[in-house]
Amino acid sequence: MRKLDSIFKEIDNNIATSMSSDRKAWAKKIVDEQLSLEPIITMLSEDHPKGARASYVLGDICEIAPSRLVPYLVDLFNNRYAIDVLGFDRSLAKFFKHSGVPNEIEGEVLDQLIKWMSDSGIKVGTKYYSMYVLRELCNKYPEITNEFVAILEDQKERNTKTFKRMAIKILSEMKKADS
Which superkingdom heads the taxonomic lineage of this protein's source (predicted)? Predict the structure, then answer.
């Protein structure tokens, strides 16, 4: 318990002014020592910048050990509107890209990702991660492929050059898969 208290006390005291390297080190320690994610998830309710930085730590954990976030994804998604973290939609899309979409919320997540992809007010980072998750969902649910292709075709000219390159790459891969 002392180890748990120590690392989370350190995070709580320093997260507001933390750098990416700090957060990555904390994420690695949490993963390596198999510590609970509850204290970090609780920090999502903190004011800016603590809440936002907590979502970055979860993103780093997700990149290192995607399965660690799976037990929390349903609650994080269902509480997305209550979590007042700037860019939390991007974080959720990233979590789904790395950890997958839980079966019990697949339909809701699919609808949300399509909304994010189609909404001109949503930032490109959210769309970038959403694009990858939707591509995977098309493999599972081919009936959504036409809608996804239409959204990519529409959005590729409305976003960054990087987004456009990735959209073209995914569209190309999808055409090859159909042949």
Answer: Bacteria
